[in-house]
From TrEMBL, chain A:
Listed transmembrane segments: none
Pfam families: ABC_tran
Biological-process GO terms, alphabetical: thiamine transmembrane transport
Keyword Metal-binding: no
Keywords: ATP-binding, Cell inner membrane, Cell membrane, Membrane, Nucleotide-binding, Translocase, Transport
Annotated protein name in UniProt: Thiamine ABC transporter ATP-binding protein
Residue stretches making up the ABC transporter domain: 21-225
CC per GO annotation: membrane
Key word Nucleotide-binding present: yes
Organism from which the protein derives: Kiloniella spongiae
From TrEMBL, chain B:
Protein's GO biological process: thiamine transport
CDD domains, sorted: TM_PBP2 (cd06261)
InterPro entries listed in its UniProt record: MetI-like, MetI-like_sf, ThiP_ABC_transpt
Subunit-structure text: The complex is composed of two ATP-binding proteins (ThiQ), two transmembrane proteins (ThiP) and a solute-binding protein (ThiB).
Annotated membrane topology: Multi-pass membrane protein
One GO term describing the cellular component: plasma membrane
GO molecular function, one term: transmembrane transporter activity
Pfam annotation, one family: BPD_transp_1
Annotated ABC transmembrane type-1 domain residues: 58-264, 335-536
Species whose genome carries this gene: Kiloniella spongiae
Name this protein carries in UniProt: Thiamine transport system permease protein ThiP
Length: 225, 560
């Protein structure tokens, strides 16, 4: 259970609706496949939930549906009582971290993070200060000008996390974010995620196939079967 | 003294096929250059510099090549973008196949299609006359050259650009969607930076193709003011019988090409011929109205550019003259000549290429000779000698060889040999780009394992090398034969009434305005080229001839 409940007071909705993220009877059918996947899930604001399950069960699909990269055939995705289904990915209160290729290889760390502030990369000096701050937060002080190829795998994911932070979206989706890293590095990164989650009051969903990762940081573990 | 000897033996063991190939090429080039240089003393420099003909020709050659490349690039970028964002667009596959065929479709056939579409009585003017408008006779001259060069090169460039756009990870598009980047942002910050890296190599290639383009300028040039070096050489030999002038022009062409190569090598990146894979990518920026409009316009322009000439050719071929042309003995003689020439040229090119590819794989594999200090510079040199041939205009080669041997034999005897040799050398760079990477990967995969298991010599060729490389060999030979079948360069120089090939026959018919006959010949030529390509590629690669595999494997393309 979340140990820190002083969430930003949600705006009063006329309906006394659920303030977290709720996935209601969401059905998804993969293009050209008969099989239908069904999802039902509720996540409290400020909760960190890990999603475990065998491969092919649709863990990543669930995150893609929430982020708007895939479309469901029925059901609803709601956050703070508002339905998200018809919003485009950029309109949703969501920021995502993939397993790899989060960063554009030809842009520097600074520019990659800057895209989270202005999608056309027109940055003010204030924005630049914010980027520096975000890099500090993820422990990469001074690496603004590095290209992704000049960073280690762990550092690249840190830059991507920094971009998630500057976007100031309440929901953070992590899709096997550290599976490509070795064990020690993974532990470090998980701790970083936990800290960011707490300090920024995020609602975090993490898909993983490693039970130990889930145990390490999750408030709650959901098994997809 | 044991060790140096052993090491020489080792080098010889690995490199003898390459040495044979390179010696053969050097011999041919040697003959050609000795021919060219033997004429140098007959050159009257004053005459050359008296009038500025040479400089006019050089100027126009650069001008049309530059403009053609620019236009082709400007058309190709939006088309590649549109296709990249719309992986499930109907007709996309067909377009991509057509685009890769543009390498194989004989130039003269494409030129014919353009005449049928844009000529004075072409489809466009016929259509416009319905509204009492006339576009006039706009084709011959610079316009025609530009239309044809864009017709051939824009699809090629689109394919190269598309391939690199498709190589970007699918996560990129999810990220751009989530960050709310607009189509303009995506182009400016993601697509353009990528394209900018491959443009020097790919557009450099197109520039060279336009710079040395012959059939297009010969058929559509329309006058001395639109002569390129290549056509000027042809005219000097064929019409003026002015060998010194041809030599001057050849040397000018050669030195310019060398300069281009030196400039180009700064951006040297392998333009590798390879096949694309299907990837499931979802581009969220494709849904916006502006994207739909710009993509629609780009694709429409491309379709309008490429499709009507092809349809017009087929349309014209279905004429009452069909039977008469098909039963003409001349057609079959030319077809037979083309067959012999293309097969001979293809085989020679393949053997030369195998030698060089074997050499390169030994030089580049660290397990073999790659650790030696001079191996890599040696490999670069060998590699470069392949590219130099690409720059060497066929006429320069043919002119040189002709001068050297003209005293020894008559043109009737020489012509077929010259055509075969020059065609073989001309296709060599293309097939090297297929064979070299294939041989290298297969050596990397199997060297350790083969040594471990003691698989050597013929056994290794039979069990390992042949199965691993037969696909590349089939593609290489098929491509080489197809390219030689459609070639109209050296044959235009040496062809006679008694010695024609299909492209030359077609060109003669176009020249005498028998367009229906030309169309039928064009179709016949295309069929012969395609059938040979498919037959050779499938047989050697050991594939079955079912339709579905034909579709999946015919996609040959160049990519940066």
């Amino acid at each position: 259970m979340p140990d820190d409940q002083e969430a930003p007071t949600p705006k009063e909705n006329h309906q006394a609706s659920f303030q977290g993220l709720s996935i209601e009877k969401l059905s998804y059918q993969h293009h050209g496949s008969e099989e239908v996947l069904d999802f039902d899930l509720r996540v409290e604001p400020n909760e960190l939930v890990a999603i475990l399950g065998p491969s092919g069960i649709g863990k990543s699909t669930l995150l893609s549906l929430i982020a708007g990269f895939e479309n469901s055939i029925s059901g609803a995705i709601k956050f703070e009582g508002k339905e998200l289904n018809n919003l485009s990915p950029s309109e949703r209160p969501i920021t995502s971290l993939f397993q790899e290729h989060n960063l554009f290889a030809h842009l520097s760390a600074e520019e990659n993070i800057g895209l989270g502030i202005h999608p056309g990369l027109r940055l003010t000096s204030q924005d630049k200060a914010q980027i520096t701050q975000a890099l500090n937060d993820v422990g990469l002080t001074g690496l603004e000008k590095r290209l992704p190829a000049e960073l280690s795998g762990g550092q690249r994911q840190r830059v991507a996390l920094a971009r998630c932070l500057v976007r100031r979206r309440p929901i953070l989706l992590l899709d096997e974010p550290f599976s490509a890293l070795d064990q020690d590095l993974r532990k470090e990164m998980l701790k970083l995620v936990k800290d960011l989650h707490q300090n920024h009051g995020l609602l975090t969903l993490m898909v993983t196939h490693l039970k130990e990762d889930a145990d390490a940081i999750a408030d709650r573990i959901v098994h997809l079967t | 003294m044991q060790r140096p000897l052993q090491s020489v033996q080792k080098w010889l063991m690995y490199l003898w096929p390459g040495f044979l190939s390179l010696s053969f090429i050097a011999l041919i080039l040697g003959f050609a250059f000795s021919g060219l240089f033997s004429e140098i003393r007959n050159i009257d420099l004053a005459r050359i510099f008296q009038n500025n003909y040479l400089f006019r020709v050089i100027g126009f050659t650069f001008f049309q090549a530059g403009l053609s490349t620019l236009l082709a690039t400007l058309v190709a970028i939006p088309v590649a973008r549109a296709l990249a964002r719309r992986p499930t667009l109907p007709g996309r596959q067909i377009f991509l196949q057509l685009a890769s065929l543009s390498l194989i479709i004989p130039t003269i056939v494409g030129v014919f299609g353009i005449v049928a579409m844009h000529g004075r009585n072409g489809w466009l003017n016929q259509f416009l006359s319905l509204f009492d408008i006339s576009a006039g006779n706009y084709l011959y001259g610079l316009t025609g050259i530009l239309i044809a060069h864009v017709f051939f090169n824009a699809p090629l460039l689109s394919r190269i650009f598309l391939q690199s756009l498709e190589a970007l990870p699918p996560e990129y598009w999810r990220t751009t969607a989530q960050l709310g980047m607009t189509g303009k942002d995506i182009f400016r910050l993601v697509e353009w930076p990528l394209l900018r890296r491959i443009i020097p190599a790919s557009c450099g290639l197109v520039f060279l193709l336009c710079f040395t383009s012959f059939a297009v300028v010969l058929a559509l040039g329309g006058g001395p003011s639109t002569n390129t070096l290549e056509v000027a050489i042809y005219q000097a030999i064929r019409f003026d019988f002015d060998i010194p002038k041809a030599v001057i022009l050849s040397l000018a062409q050669l030195s310019l090409c060398l300069i281009l190569l030196i400039i180009g090598s700064k951006f040297a990146r392998h333009v590798v011929l390879q096949k694309t894979e299907e990837r499931s990518v979802q581009r969220f920026d494709a849904r916006h109205t502006i994207a739909k409009i710009t993509d629609g316009l780009a694709l429409l322009a491309m379709v309008f550019l490429v499709i009507p000439p092809l349809i017009a050719t087929v349309w014209k071929a279905v004429s009452p003259r069909l039977i008469a042309v098909l039963t003409d003995e001349k057609l079959w003689t030319a077809s037979f000549n083309s067959l012999l020439i293309s097969l001979a040229a293809g085989c020679i090119a393949l053997i030369l290429a195998i030698g060089i590819a074997l050499m390169l794989r030994s030089l580049q594999s660290p397990y073999r000779l790659g650790r030696h200090s001079f191996a890599s510079s040696f490999a670069t040199m060998t590699d470069l000698s392949g590219s130099i041939i690409l720059l060497l205009p066929p006429f320069v080669l043919a002119t040189g060889l002709f001068i050297t041997f003209r005293t020894a034999a008559s043109l009737t005897v020489l012509a077929p040999f010259l055509v075969v040799i020059v065609n073989a050398l001309m296709t060599l760079p293309f097939i090297l780009r297929i064979l070299v990477p294939a041989f290298e990967t297969s050596a990397q995969k199997s060297d350790h394992l083969c040594d471990n298991l003691g698989i050597k010599g013929l056994n290794r060729i039979r069990i390992i090398d042949w199965p691993q490389n037969r696909k590349a060999l089939g593609l290489a030979l098929g491509l080489s034969v197809a390219l030689s079948t459609g070639d109209l360069s050296v044959i235009a120089l040496f062809g006679t009434q008694d010695f024609t090939t299909l492209p030359l026959l077609m060109f003669q018919k176009m020249g005498s305005y028998r367009l229906d006959d030309a169309a039928i010949t064009a179709l016949f030529l295309c069929l012969q080229s395609l059938i040979l390509f498919i037959l050779i590629e499938r047989t050697i690669a050991g594939k079955r001839f079912s339709f579905s595999t034909t579709k999946a494997n015919k996609r040959v393309s160049t990519s940066a």
